[in-house]
Inverse folding.
């Protein structure tokens, strides 16, 4: 006992319908593969996170507020990456270390 219709017109209709769906699935798979490849290229091209960050206050020319470790979750939007020497210099100039990540401890800075 077959679950397919016995006549040729309905069989051809089913064949056409399934071919249409296979084409749609192939296009959806190709689009998903392209999105995945673009995401992977974006991750590979992303610049690495800075080791140290200086967060500044509000306004143009505002003084630094905190020195953070590069992976600190408390880094604000007004910040810039700095190297180790610049972070140490900021701490020496009186910029406080972030109380969450304790960048001064990570830097080995002793007051």
């Amino acid at each position: 006992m077959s679950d397919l219709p016995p006549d040729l017109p309905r069989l051809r209709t089913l064949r056409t319908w399934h071919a249409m769906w296979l084409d749609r699935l192939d296009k959806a798979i190709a689009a998903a593969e392209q999105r995945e490849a673009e995401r992977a290229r974006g991750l590979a091209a992303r610049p690495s996170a800075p080791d140290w960050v200086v967060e500044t206050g509000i306004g143009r020319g505002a003084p630094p507020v905190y020195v953070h470790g590069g992976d600190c979750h408390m880094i604000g939007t007004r910040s810039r990456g700095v190297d180790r020497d610049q972070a140490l210099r900021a701490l020496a100039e009186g910029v406080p270390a972030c109380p969450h990540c304790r960048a001064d401890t990570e830097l080995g800075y002793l007051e």
Remarks:
- Residues 87 and 93 are 10 Å apart (CA to CA).
- Residues 1-46 form one domain.
